[in-house]
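User: For my dataset I need records formatted as: sequence, then C-alpha cells, nothing else. Please produce one.
Assistant:
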Amino acid sequence: MGAYDVIVAGGGHNGLVAAAYLARAGRRVLVLERYDHLGGLAISARPFPGVDVRLSRYSYLVSLLPTQIMRDLGLNLELRRRRYASYTPKGATGLLVDNEDDGRTAASFRDVTGGEHDHKAWRDFYDMTARVARTLAPTLLEPLRTPAEIERLVGPEAWRDMFERPIGVAVDERFRDDTVRGVVLTDALIGTFADPATDLLANRCFLYHVIGDGTGEWNVPVGGMGAVSGALEAAARRAGAEIRTGAEIVGISPSGEVTFTGEDGEHTVNGRHVLVNLPPAVRDRVLGRAQDVPEGAQLKVNMVLTRLPRLKDPSVDPRAAFSGTFHINEGRDQLARAYAHAARGEIPQAPPAEVYCHSLTDPSILGPELRGRAETMTLFGLHMPARLFRKNPEKSRENALRSTFASINSVLAEPIEECLLKTPDGALCVEAKTPVDLERDAGLPGGHIFHADLTWPFGEEGEAGRWGAETADERILICGASARRGGGVSGIAGHNAAMAVLKA
C-alpha cells in the first residue's frame, strides 16, 4: 500500500468531501474507515426487522451543505424544500409558520399571541438572520476572516444580537410571547446543553442553524441521509480515491505515519498529509495524547407510524403540522425548566422535543407496500445530556423515552402509542438513542453530535487567513466536525481541509 499524498482518517461525509476534492486535483488519496460502511452519522438504516423503511438514523435534515460543494463534486443528490417551517401546539390551537402564505402565518400568530406585535418582530428578526446568512455563508468556504471583518459584513445590529450578547437576551427583548420565544430559541439548543440567557455557546449553535446555504432552510434529502453519503462516496471513487472500510486506526504519528488494523492484520501507511475526520478525543487517543471527552445532550427517537396522530386543533391538517418542525413543550420557560432539571442530574419532567415526518416530503424512503399506509416520524429531544444516562444506561433510556412520550401526548389529541406501526413479530417500531448509545454505537465520545462544542465561524487570534483545519503538527489537519466552521452535515470542514493542502 505504501505512501500516499493524503490519508483521510475517517470515512464520514467530511472525509469523503476532502477525498473527492483532493483526488480530483490529482493527489493519491487513501480513506480509512473503521466501520463496514461510510457516512458517519449521515446514514440510512432499516432498524425494524421486516419493516421496509430506510430511516435517517442519526442526522436527518440538510441545511449547511453548500451548493458550491454539490456543484464542484457533481453530486447526484436532490434536496427538497419543506413548505411548512414549523407548527407549535398551544392549548387548543397552535402556531403554524407557512413558508408560502404569510397571511396564514400572520393569522396564526394572532390566534396564539393575541396581537400583531410578535409577527412583526418575527419578520424583522428573520429578515436580519437572512441577511446574515446571505453574507456569512460564502465566507465558510474561504480562508478565515477576523472578527472585525465579520462584524463589518453582518452589521452592528446582527453582531450585537447574534454574536456579542446571549441570544436569550435578544429574544426576550424582541418577542413578548413565551411560545414564540421558545420556537426561536430551539435553534440555539439543538445538540447543545447551554443556557441561552447566559451562554454564548447557544449563539454559536443558533448561527449554525440559521445561516444554511445562504438561506437557512432545512431541506429533506431524497432517499434519506444515506443518499447524501452515497453521493459523496460516488464522487470520491469517481475521482480516484482509494477507500478501505473495516480499517480501525490505532495510531497516527506527527510525521504522517498511520497504523490501522483490519481483517488481514495490522498495516502502516505514510502520507504527506493526514486529514483527521475523527472526534477530538479519538484523535488525541490515536496520537497518544491526553483526551478531553465532551458531553452530548440529545435524545433521538426514530418511529414508524400507521397514520399521523390527531391534533387538538382540528382546523390544522396533521400533514402540514408534521411535515415541518413540530415543537413539543418548547416554550421559553419550559426550556428553562428542562435545563434546570437536567443540570441537577434529573430527566426533565416535560422534556422539550421536536419531530418531523420525512416521508411526507419524500415517500421514497418507504417500501412500495408501505407507501400510503405508513409514515416515518423523527424526534429530537433537547436537554438530555450524557450525565443522565451514565449510571444506568438502559433504565435511564426507558425513563427518558417514557417521559418524552408523555410530553408529546400532552400536546396531541390522542396518544402517539396508538399510531405506532408494529413489526411482523409484534414489536413497536420505536428506536431511541441517547448520547451514551451514540458513544457506544457510533464511536462518538460523550455522544456529542458535533464532536465538540461548536466554534465561531471566524478566526481567533493568529488564525485569520488559515482554513480552520490546521493543527500544531504541520502534516496533520482536521477535516471533521470539530474543525473551525465544522458541525452539521455540511462538508465544509472537508472542503476547507482539502483547500489547506491544495493552496499551501
